[in-house]
Design a protein that fits this description.
It is built from 21 helices and no strands. With 451 residues, the chain is mainly alpha-helical. The protein has two domains: 335 residues, no CATH class; 93 residues, no CATH class. α2 packs antiparallel against α3, α2 runs antiparallel to α10 and α7 runs parallel beside α21. The chain is elongated. The N and C termini lie close together (6 Å). Belongs to the inorganic phosphate transporter (PiT) (TC 2.A.20) family. Pit subfamily. InterPro entries: Phos_transporter. Its main location: membrane. It holds the Pfam family PHO4.
């Protein structure tokens, strides 16, 4: 096992390496996804490229700072409880290396070939792979070891959001085309001449909206990854929220109420672990808490309560009670310090300012058979910003890349210009391959590192 004693020299080195990996991943996420926001203002000459990416980077930064953490923990809870919070405070170095290495490698691979790809898919695929690798390592049934309900919930959001982007942007473009008669909206810019005032202002506004909403959603993903890193390697310091003391006082009471629910409704075949955890929590003394052990037990119980809440055999009252108890326990372990938010915001914001040209060229010229027009860009970004912002505040991770790319394709279809089938096939192949490739690599890495 690649587990090092907490606060040893090796654990500190592992912390530095994993921190570097997560920062590089978020940096790459920034320059991989920045084209979604700046392609329209660059191709319509509304802003010069350098100005556009700096402005987009600043708005990404603000989005991360002002966004929540529901997406962050919605993602990391794809991991089994014993991986999400390793027992005995052992650092989860194999998990971190498998996660960051897989997601970063695939992100760089698709960026190099100028293919718009989803960083969200990379992370989710790697997390699922780790969950599968953990099941294989402990010879558990995949159906009982992986939280498929959470996975399907996230995958549904990832699958539906591009479709909504395609239809929504195409529909909005159709409406604009019939209501606004200004011909400049429907023509690619000529030479270096920028678009007129109000059209330029509209495009800058949509660029701002997409950049902010991208930060509020994608930034949460790196927050979750950073928290996995510091909690896995330095559990005594970061396992529990700094303001968790008032909640810990009530943990024994919550666990006592949860015990009959956990005992009655099997926790996906892992009932023994959940029952043992809820029994220990029911005897919790606030002045004798061991942070890493409390965190591990809480996640076992929260996972059990999620199963009860989704169990059709439980009554509506029992399901509601399970959901309430889970929400009451979460604040003890689900948090993000201000410096984690700041680090995520800086990495995403700086990354946004670099490396944008490959993807911008694809979005501006290769999605359709004609160059992007102001009306098409504005329609795609208005719809995209709304979808991304809504998802960010409801706890669902969505792909900015998929939504904006689908939106541009929708406007190309709406205008009658058609789409570039060759490029769309490449993008579709990248989308289809991302999950199986990242799942396989992460599962294999995690299994081998632990062997």
């Amino acid at each position: 096992m690649l587990h090092f004693a907490p606060y040893s020299t090796f654990s500190i080195i592992a912390l530095v390496v994993c921190f570097a990996l997560v920062c590089v991943f978020e940096f790459v996420n920034g320059f991989h996804d920045t084209a979604n926001a700046v392609a329209t203002v660059i191709y319509t000459r509304s802003l010069k490229p350098r100005t556009a990416v700096i402005w987009s980077g600043c708005m990404n930064f603000v989005g991360v700072i002002l966004g929540g953490i529901s997406v962050a923990y919605g993602l990391v809870e794809l991991l089994p409880a014993d991986v999400l919070s390793p027992p005995n405070g052992d650092p989860a170095v194999p998990m971190l290396i498998s996660l960051f290495g897989t997601a970063l490698a695939w992100n760089l691979f698709t960026w190099w070939f100028g293919i718009p790809n989803s960083s969200s898919h990379c992370v989710i695929g790697a997390l699922i792979g780790i969950a599968i690798g953990d099941a294989l390592l402990h010879t558990r049934d995949l159906g009982n070891s992986v939280d498929w309900s959470q996975i399907w919930k996230i995958l549904r959001a990832l699958a539906i959001s591009p479709l909504l982007g395609l239809i929504g942007a195409g529909g909005l473009y159709f409406i604009i085309r019939h209501l606004v008669r200004d011909p400049e909206l429907y023509q690619p810019p000529q030479g270096d001449r920028p678009t007129r005032g109000w059209v330029r202002g509209l495009l800058i506004l949509t660029c701002t909206g997409v950049s902010f909403s991208h930060g509020s959603n994608d930034g949460q993903k790196s927050i979750g990854l950073i928290m996995l890193t510091i909690i896995g390697i330095l559990p005594a310091t970061f396992a529990l929220a700094p303001n968790s003391a008032p909640h810990i006082v009530h943990i024994a009471e919550y666990a006592t109420n949860a015990t009959p629910l956990i005992q009655q409704y099997d926790h996906d075949g892992l009932r023994d672990e959940a029952v043992a955890s809820v029994t220990r929590l029911s005897r919790t003394a606030p002045d004798e808490v061991v942070p890493s052990e409390l965190r591990a037990d809480l996640y076992e119980v929260v996972a059990g309560l999620k199963t009860v809440a989704a169990n059709p055999q439980a009554s509506a009252q029992e399901r509601a009670m399970a959901k309430t108890l889970g929400n009451q326990m979460r604040p003890v372990v689900e948090y993000a310090p201000w410096w984690v938010r700041l680090l995520s915001a800086l990495c995403l914001g700086i990354g946004t300012m670099i490396g944008y040209k490959r993807i911008v060229h694809t979005l501006g010229e290769k999605i359709g058979n004609t160059h992007l027009t102001p009306a098409q860009g504005a329609s795609a970004e208005l719809v995209g910003a709304g979808l991304i912002a809504t998802a960010g505040y409801t706890g669902l991770p969505v792909s900015t890349t998929h939504i904006i790319t689908a939106g541009i394709a929708g406007t190309m279809l709406g205008s009658g210009s058609g789409i570039n089938r060759g490029m769309l096939v490449k993008i579709a192949l990248a989308w289809v391959c991302t999950l199986p490739v990242t799942i396989t690599i992460a599962a294999g890495l995690f299994y081998l590192l632990n062997r």
